[in-house]
Amino acid sequence: MVIDFLKNLIFNQQKMTGRGNIQMEFAVQMHGEGCAGELKKLLADAGTVTIDPDKGSVLIETHLPWLEIHKCIEATGRRAVLTGFGGQSAVAMVDHGNEATNVRGVIRFCTLSNAADQKGAVVDGTIDGLAQNAYFQLNVHECGDISGGCSTVGDVYDTSEILSDDNGRATVRFVNERLIVSDLIGRSVVIAEPAGNQERRLSCGIIARSAGIFENYKKICACDGVTLWDERNKSIAADEERKAKGGHASL
């Protein structure tokens, strides 16, 4: 029943145009054609799906947020890790300067075209720890200097409005026609709370280059030498500990 609930939740969202569709690649724990067939059926309404059970790879072209696809896969009891996102991509781990707010999340940017200098990007991600049912600003700032927290990142380079839900989570998925992904590397993302003529900066992170489709075949995490699945299990354990303390799950 959990799977049916998730399918109804994510597939009834307002669909984007084909211009907003991107490819995502997930490493998924699966065993044989039976698992592959179940996953393909589950994701059929989400987009175009290609599954390689031998490699444990699920490739999907979709208009939906990556986190919703991830939830749907893991609701089957299988572990999943996002290993590739679109073409030229960038990512910001938004978890700095948030000591007083605990606002944190991940924001990804992906090109709409293979042309490096062409404008247009899909912005996709999730921010947790926000006030419920409120509007916030997702700002790209001109530089990535977070030596002084979120106050030293320079002027706003681009801004978009996002909305949190009943749980204080903002699920982000839209097309920004102004951005060039290659121009974002080294800048920063700031989540801000509008307050009159001023903005309260809640959390920030540097935008870095990230893996596109078929660019990440990592099986061992270079940071600590554990396998991809051990790393995922560590993340789940940390989520459970955080929930027990009344915090938010990681992404």
Automatic annotation (TrEMBL):
<dbReference type="GO" id="GO:0005507">
    <property type="term" value="F:copper ion binding"/>
</dbReference>
<dbReference type="InterPro" id="IPR024134">
    <property type="entry name" value="SOD_Cu/Zn_/chaperone"/>
</dbReference>
<keyword id="KW-0049">Antioxidant</keyword>
<dbReference type="GO" id="GO:0004784">
    <property type="term" value="F:superoxide dismutase activity"/>
</dbReference>
<keyword id="KW-0862">Zinc</keyword>
<protein>
    <recommendedName>
        <fullName>superoxide dismutase</fullName>
        <ecNumber>1.15.1.1</ecNumber>
    </recommendedName>
</protein>
<dbReference type="InterPro" id="IPR036423">
    <property type="entry name" value="SOD-like_Cu/Zn_dom_sf"/>
</dbReference>
